[in-house]
Amino acid sequence: MRNSVIVSAGDAITAKLVEQAGFDGIWVSGFEASARLGLADNGSITMTEMLRVCEPIVKAVNIPVWVDTDTGYNNFQRTVMEFEDIGVAGVSIEDNLPELKTNSLWGETVPLMKAEDFANKINVRKKNIKVIARTEALIRGHGQKEASKRLNLYCDNGADIVLVHARKWEDVYIWDSSVPLAIVPTKFPEITNRRLHDMGYSMVIWANQTERVKIKSVRDALKSLKENDCAKYIENNLSATLDEMKGLTPDV
Length: 252
Known about the structure:
The protein is of the alpha/beta class. The chain has 2 domains: 4-207, Alpha-Beta Barrel (TIM Barrel), CATH 3.20.20; 216-247, no CATH class. It contains 10 helices and 8 strands. An 8-stranded parallel barrel has the order 1-2-3-4-5-6-7-8, surrounded by 6 helices. Helix 5 links the parallel strand 4 (90-94) and strand 5 (130-135). The longest helix is centred in the C-terminal third of the chain and has 20 residues, at 209-228. It is globular. The mean pLDDT is 93.
């Protein structure tokens, strides 16, 4: 697997923009998808809801779409089959306990699923889809030794790619396995893709930047509309043209 940079998109238009910008794939984030539905990132979103988000994205682009399936929903074997059916390139599953699932960018140490149990969980049948096995050991304070143990065990039990989640740059370490390693550098955005690739990370995932950009842009536009009592400033300074928007939709 060559070095790749994957960027989040929660809808078909954003996915097309990511593709047009020359990135290697789309990341459909559980955090983003949950937030758009007014849900907390705690496993509330269902597999059916996530499939509805992903299918138009897959149809809109010609680059791989990778999906964050949190803890794999009720049955990970079925999850793999359903996302494979709509053409997703790969699904990510994390070793959080489903009942304790929270967004690990916040919070402290919590118990994780037993490594052996998670290894069994990811050992599923698949054809044209890859499984990214993500460990929360590092970001949840269990240490590099535990994270490394889990990553290697997951590699031995069917993971096509492994992902180590980290909150601090100093926690990140060099990987020397033949199994591709992915990272989500949300908390250390100053680190370049090239540097991460040089350290052995095959896949760099920018998992929530596009949605956060939208939040600020929409907030600024609404403020302008309220203060100026018209949309002229928005049209002249903040928005794409109508033609640009139409250009991101099908002709028929």
